[in-house]
Amino acid sequence: MFAAAVTGDVGAGKSTLAAVSASLGATVISADAVAKSQWSKPDVLESAVRRWGSGAAPNGAADFAAIARAAFADDEEYRFMNALIHPGTAADINRLVRSSRGLVVVEIPLLFETAARDWVDYVIYVTAPLDARIRRNADRGWDAGEIARRERFMLGAAGKKKKSNVTLVNDMDMESWERAVRPFCERLFAMASAHEVSAYCCSFADAERISSLLVERRLASGANIVETNSRYRWEGAVNTSREWRLTCYTTERSLRAAMECIRENHPYELPAVTATELAHADPATLEWIVENCG
Question: pLDDT below 50 — which residues of the chain?
Answer without folding.
Answer: none
